[in-house]
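Bit of a strange request maybe. I'm writing a small parser for structure token strings and I need a real example to test against, not something I typed by hand. Could someone generate the tokens for this chain?
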Amino acid sequence: MNVNHSYFQPFENPSSYLLMKWFYSGSNAKTLAEMDRLVQEVLLKPDFNRVDLANFRAKRESQRVDVIKDKGLADSLFQATDGWYKINISLPVPFERIKYSSISQVPIFTVESLVYRRPLQVLSAALQDASPNEFHLQPSKLYWQHDDDPDNSERLYSELYDSDVFIDEHERIRAVYETKERDIVVAAMMLWSDSTQLANFGNASLWPIYLYLGNQTKYVRCKPSATAAHHIAYIPKVWLTIICSSTADLT
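Reply from user aminoacidic:
Good idea to test on real output. This should exercise your parser:
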């Protein structure tokens, strides 16, 4: 039998591949029909060999998929031509209750393949793509006036651009930078992050960082259909595996 030995990558053998493929495909609720599919598409396949499963661990095999998915999707989705940059970040990670005589002795953990876009590029694209009517570039104060007492009004705080902090900052930068040829406005950048699943096959995930503009009303900004979230960075999932072999010289 002529078997292509590359088709079951990244798994170690065809049996592991067939079993994991069955688990991640089809219905989420494994029914009698799913049991039939297990027999037909896995157990009866000529490449399946139960000896291969002697050391099978589902968690380990799932992590193989995650590594491939993380790297493959990152390379295909985040192209430099679309304004994405990829960097490695080295972070000092000191151990608890250990004193270091210098920063050079602190263990370093490197986060690889963090992708990001430059904030000013994202901001410029957002302001150019959207309708000018969607953004409040001039701050204002909002009041509610009583019908039975027109002279009695109450200050309302509803949006970022009607807050005192926004108004004060707007006036401050105008006094410093504004000229007759150039209007100065405040662009309020709001950042948000949450984990997202990349694929149905495996547990590959990333932590995206979204940028919202506070100049846009929250009643539009919070609608998924408004596509008001701008992707600015993706933090890869990491496993912290720093091992300190000796701490005697560090104290």
